[in-house]
């Protein structure tokens, strides 16, 4: 089953993708992006695998 985004030709980005993109475009600092990711994990129970977390940090 295809998602609505796929049907519309839109590439899903996700929360981490949005944070990475805003850091790359200097809308927020890389330090702020990491702080927000850590806040999502610690306060809002955002679930992320260790490998994905490490990959995101490497991107920052």
What features would you describe in this structure?
This protein is mainly α. It has one domain (13-59). Helix content is 68%, strand content 0%. The chain has 4 helices and no strands. The protein has helices at 4-8, 14-24, 30-44, 50-59. The longest helix is centred in the middle third of the chain and has 15 residues, at 30-44. The protein is globular, with a radius of gyration of 13 Å.
**N→C terminal distance:** 33 Å
Individual helix count: 4
- The succession of helices and strands, N to C, reads HHHH
Shape: globular
SS-based class: mainly alpha
Largest sheet: none
Rg from Cα: 13 Å
Which regions are unreliable across 5 or more consecutive residues at pLDDT < 50?
none
Q: What number of domains?
A: 1
Query: What's the total number of strands?
Result: 0
Query: Percent of residues in beta strands?
Result: under 5%
Helix proportion range: 55-70%
Q: What's the pLDDT, averaged over the residues?
A: 93
Q: How would you describe this structure in keywords?
A:
single chain; 60 residues; globular
Summarize the model shown.
The protein is an all-alpha fold and 60 residues long. It has helices at 4-8, 14-24, 30-44, 50-59.
Give the arrangement of secondary structure elements.
Blueprint: H1 4-8, H2 14-24, H3 30-44, H4 50-59
Helix pairs in contact: 2-3
């Amino acid at each position: 089953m295809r998602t609505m985004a796929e049907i519309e030709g839109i590439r899903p980005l996700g929360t981490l993708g949005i944070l990475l993109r805003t850091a790359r475009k200097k809308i927020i600092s890389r330090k702020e992006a990491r702080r927000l990711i850590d806040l999502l994990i610690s306060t809002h129970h955002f679930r992320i695998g260790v490998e994905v977390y490490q990959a995101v940090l490497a991107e920052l």
